[in-house]
Structures are given as structure tokens and as C-alpha cells.
């Protein structure tokens, strides 16, 4: 379940500004990319970043993710848990333990 | 608050595979970008996309966002609500209503 | 000037497959992002990457950049040189020397 | 071949500012993503974009691509042409004509 107060705060914010007209799944997907690149920019030249900057940019990515989930009638927690199940199959513990390799490059 | 069962399921998944060693804020930020681009790929040639594909890719973006928030000791809901407050200042209703322009291009 | 043989090879490839109908500036911009994230994926968990993988993904990013420049009637070399001139203004040598800071965070 | 004057202009610009120390393949890959997302931002809410903005952002993406190619001792035109050859195999004209589907979803 998504926290009710977060979702209604977001919906009210969007509705007050009559912005829903701009929020298509495609434009929300573009927005998620754009914000995630601003998050990456915190680490452009270094692996250390100011926590405040990272927090602000991560908040923007999450915001658009929640808006997209809401637009598609999806529950963020549910889809994360569902995806986790299939990822467990792709990366069985005995093969994937301690390795960062992609699933098609795991040892037999 | 983040749903407790989602967070502990993710933590257990990562821990079982001894993957936390790979999860630095920088690598998690890269992962969020990579997954968001896979989400965008659903809309590469068209504004219509298969809902299943979008759901799966959105789940991946959210997963890495939750892992990054957890790594930094942040509560996703809290940071979204906090960011919303400052975004309200940048985009006052009277100026931003019905406009998709960036805050530095709003009318006076 | 862009090397004539590269541009005509790309044009022929696209034309043979009747793909120009899909190549709008917007879809080419999305494609550039998607391919650049695949390039980033070479470095997802490490700063070291297989040179072959990097070369292949960089080739894809460049390909879409050349297609977008061509679609807009722009010469890639010209626009890079033109942008370099304004970047020199933003980052004067005396202020920017040895610093990775963004232009709005340079010392006075 | 890459236009000699573009490459030496870029090298001189970087060298004057002592910026080569920041340019690793990993950081250049991140930079390419960051700039491509700024290009995408021109199309965030609409498929129409100001040509000047698109030109500026495309120039930034190309700049970092040239810097990365240079860093790895690669010729941009060569790698694009080489990649084109393998892409022709993946997307044979008879199967791919007029279709935007990915190679693993082409008809038999």
C-alpha cells in the first residue's frame, strides 16, 4: 500500500495547477529519466556527493514514479514485490551470491 | 513511512546474495538511470506502450530508489512530501496553473 | 564537416528499411538517452569496463546523434565548435583551472 | 576520420583547464547520459521543441562522445560504420522493412 497522505498530497498539488493534462505515461516516463539524470549529476565527477543534493533529486525521481504508478492504477509496493519474485528466479542465491554479473553471465 | 514488508523483503533479497557490497550511493544512482531508460524504451517509437512492460520497468526503477533511500537512511514518503513543499513555492498556483513551463519561464 | 561516407551509409541503412517514418526529433532524442544508458551500464557496478562493450554502445549513441543532427539539418562538427565558444565563456581558464565545479559554483 | 580541427579544439580546451584528470571513461559515460537527458528535457512535455535548445544540448552530447572516443583511442566514424555492419545483420531488410520492432520481435 502507498501511504495515503503522500498520494493525496501529490494529487492535490497536480490538480490545483491543472497539470494532469500534461501527465501521460510517456511524458511521465521521460520525466523519470530526466530527474534520474539530475540525481546522477550529483556523482558526475566523483563517487562522493552532498547528501542534501542526492536527497532532493531522489525525491524528484520518486515523485514522478508515484505519479506514473497512480496514472496506471498501479500500487508501487505491489509491483516492487511482484517483480522481486521474478528477479529471485533470474538470480538464484547459489549462482548469484557475491557476484554482480548480469543473469545471462552467471556460471552454470 | 515505507511499507515494512517491502523494505525487509528487499533487504533480505540483497543480503541473501551478499550484494550490499556493490550498492554504493553512486552505483545505485547509476542503476536508477539505467532502469529508467529501460522504462523509456517502452515508449521509444510510440506514446503507446504495453502496460505489462511499463509495470515491470517501473518496478525496477522503484526498487533501486527504495534501495538508495534505505542506504542513505531516508524515508521515501518523507522526502517526497518535503520536496513537494519547496516545489509549491517554485510553482505558485496563480502563475503555474495550466502551464508546463519551467519555473524560470513563468509569467510575472 | 561530417564524413560523407558515414552519413550516406546511415541514410542508406535507414532508407532501405523505410525507417525514417519513425525518426522524429523527439524519438531520436529518446533513442540517444536509451543508448547512453546502455553505455553507462558497462560501468554499472565498476569503473572498469570491457573496451569492446564500451565501443559498441558508444557507437550506438553516436549513430543516433548523427541521425538527429541530419534530421535537423545540422553539422555535428559545427555545432560542437559553436558550443565550445560559449562554454569557454562560462568556464574562463583562470577560474575553472583544475576544478570540476559547475559554472555557478566557481570562485569569484 | 574525425575532423582534426574539432578534436584539437576540444583537446586544447580541456588541457588549458587541466580537466583531463576528471575525464575517466566512467565519468565521461556519466556525462553523456546527463547531457542526453538535458536534450530529452527539450521534449519533456511536448514533441515540439525549440531548435536552438535542441542544437545546444545535442552539441553537449556529441562533445562528450568525442571526448570519450578520444580517451579510448577510437575513431568515431570508424566505430559507427563498424557497428552499422552488425546492425544490418540484426535487422535484415526483408524482415525489418517498415517495422520499429526490436530484433528479437521480428517476424520469421
Q: Overview of this structure, please?
A:
Chains A, B, C, D: This is Nucleotide pyrophosphohydrolase. Chains A, B, C, D: InterPro entries: dCTP_Pyrophosphatase (IPR052555), DCTPP (IPR025984). Chains A, B, C, D: It comes from Nocardioides immobilis. Four copies of one chain form a homotetramer. The first copy, chain A, is mostly helical. Chain A has one domain: Orthogonal Bundle (Helix Hairpins), CATH 1.10.287. Helices cover 65% and strands 0% of the residues of chain A. Chain A has helices spanning 4-16, 25-41, 51-71, 76-90, 93-96. In chain A, helix 2 (25-41) runs antiparallel to helix 3 (51-71). Chain A is extended and about 55 Å long. Chain A starts with a helix and ends in a 12-residue tail after the last helix.
